[in-house]
Design a protein that fits this description.
Strand order of the largest sheet: 6-5-7-8-9
Distance between the termini: 102 Å
Strand content: 5-15%
Largest sheet: 5 strands, parallel
Number of strands: 9
CATH superfamily of one domain: SGNH hydrolase
Structural class: alpha/beta
CATH architecture of one domain: 3-Layer(aba) Sandwich
């Protein structure tokens, strides 16, 4: 109650002094404050990468201060209570994201930065159309393919740029359109093992076009994320039992050596999901006696809460949403700063898993090439035991930089050195082991230099667009026919 000396509305008023209809239950205040703190923690843990990012908590502190000053005003209470309801709804939504994807067919889960444990849970529980529906294969914990018969959905370039492309995994867990060919044929003439570029992202693979150009039966063993290890395991598991005449091992200049290093640090004790968890890879790289010396990463400055975010759906969904918004803004700014009509990004040879120290680029490539050749040696050993050996084509698939240097981009000595090292290393390995080395760089460059055609997407400078696939298919087919024709 106010005394004679206390003016009405002074700071010592309490809820008890308010009219009955205006009293706010204490529970509402507790819920509002707790929800605000919880929301702040979610945002902070989903965005903080460095200790200085504590500044991200300042908006929550300001909101708490405002609440302390105006907690008796019903309008303020209602606004904060709405925020409380939103926070609880958001947590409920995130924790049930797999069920939501299953119920309405969305693909949110496929893009989340999940750790191995939650990825295994998603693989077991997710039943709707999804981008990745993987299972272990080929007798190797780090090898995987799609579950045969599962629906595969992918959108090229960005989620809103094109219509989703949907198909069904074939009997071997890949994306061949000639369903039943492997099951019903005692022999397949040609097998191709590559990564997402030859799988086809958001569209049919270039291999489907090759079927009309090359008069042999063929099967595509290419899949998103495949590195040298998975490609060799796929060929040994699926190709060799079919007594092929030709094997094509793709080497993708942009990421194969880094994929090989990732497999190396994941090790036999992990499973393939290790490859899809950036925090897990980062921890393993920093613990490796060789690779950690090449990285420009201070262990105290790695993302503070990634290990929590990858094992919690609420943090993972929040982190993905924030990263998507941030990347969208960056792309808009970058597009607005373009001074000409040239593509604003061009994929370069070798995309390291993490930032490298100055002068360590070539060391990284050398280390990755050594692991790559170790994987290739397993195929060499297996072929040596066969009476009728297939011929092996080592296909060098260049990065966008190697194709478009001197067209849309000036030469950069470091990238040229890396590209030359990879080409010469693969050429030498092929020569030592009786393989055929096929470099697509010059055939592609000659065509594109004349036509100035852009074979990638607006945002995706790694995978060929539908137009690019149509341009590349006859070039790749002609080059394969040359080596196959001269060797048959």
């Amino acid at each position: 109650m106010n005394t004679a000396t206390d003016p009405p509305g002074s700071a010592i008023d309490t809820d008890a002094d308010m009219p009955q209809e205006k009293r706010i239950p204490v529970l509402i205040h507790v819920l509002n404050v707790a929800a605000l703190v919880l929301l702040g923690l979610i945002i902070f843990m989903a965005t903080a990468a460095l200790p200085r990012h504590l500044v991200f908590l300042s908006p929550i502190l300001i909101l708490l201060l405002i609440y302390k000053l105006f907690y008796k005003r019903q309008a303020i209470i209602l606004c904060y209570f709405a925020l409380t309801v939103f926070t609880l709804f958001w947590i409920l939504f995130c924790e049930n994201i797999v069920a939501i994807d299953n119920l309405i067919g969305t693909r949110i889960t496929a893009s989340l930065p999940l750790g191995p444990r939650l990825r295994a849970y998603v693989d077991a529980k997710l039943t709707s159309s999804r981008r990745h529906f993987y299972q272990q294969c080929c007798g190797d914990p780090l090898s995987y393919n799609l579950k045969p018969g599962s629906r595969h959905t992918e959108t090229y370039d960005c989620q809103t740029c094109n219509d989703p492309y949907q198909t069904v995994a074939d009997e071997t867990g890949y994306l061949n359109k000639q369903m039943g060919l492997m099951m019903n044929s005692p022999r397949i003439d040609l097998f191709i093992a590559g990564d997402s570029v030859l799988q086809g992202v958001g569209m049919p693979s270039v291999v489907e076009a090759l079927r009309e150009q090359i008069p042999v039966t063929m099967w595509n063993l290419s899949l998103n994320g495949y590195g040298p290890r998975q490609k060799i395991n796929a060929l040994i598991t699926y190709a060799l039992p079919k007594h092929p005449q030709w094997l094509v091992v793709e080497f993708f200049s942009e990421n194969d050596v880094s994929d090989a290093i990732e497999d190396d640090v994941c090790g036999q004790q992990a499973d393939f999901r290790c490859r899809f968890s950036f925090p897990e890879l980062q921890r393993r790289l920093l613990a490796h006696p060789v690779y950690r010396t090449m990285l420009d990463v201070n262990p105290s400055e790695i993302s503070l809460f990634d290990s929590y975010a990858e094992n919690d759906f609420t943090l993972a969904v929040s982190q993905q949403l924030i990263h998507t918004l941030r990347n969208t803004i960056k792309l808009k700014i970058r597009e607005g700063s373009k001074k000409d009509n040239a593509p604003f990004m061009i994929g370069r040879p070798v995309r390291p898993t993490d930032e490298l120290r100055d002068g360590q680029f070539l060391s990284w490539v050398r280390a990755g090439m050594a692991v790559t050749h170790h994987d290739y040696e397993r195929l060499v050993t297996r072929l040596a035991s066969l009476e009728n050996k297939p011929k092996v084509i080592l296909l060098y698939n260049p990065s966008a930089y190697e194709i478009y240097r001197d067209i849309f981009r000036k030469r950069e000595p470091e990238y040229d050195e890396i590209a030359a090292y990879q080409v010469e290393g693969q050429k030498a390995f092929a020569k030592r082991n009786g393989w055929i080395f096929l470099d697509l760089t010059e055939p592609l460059k000659n065509t594109l230099k004349r036509d100035k055609a852009w074979i990638y997407g607006r945002y995706d400078q790694m995978h060929w667009s539908q137009k690019g696939t149509a341009i590349i298919a006859p070039i790749l087919g002609a080059e394969l026919l040359k080596v196959m024709g001269t060797r048959q």
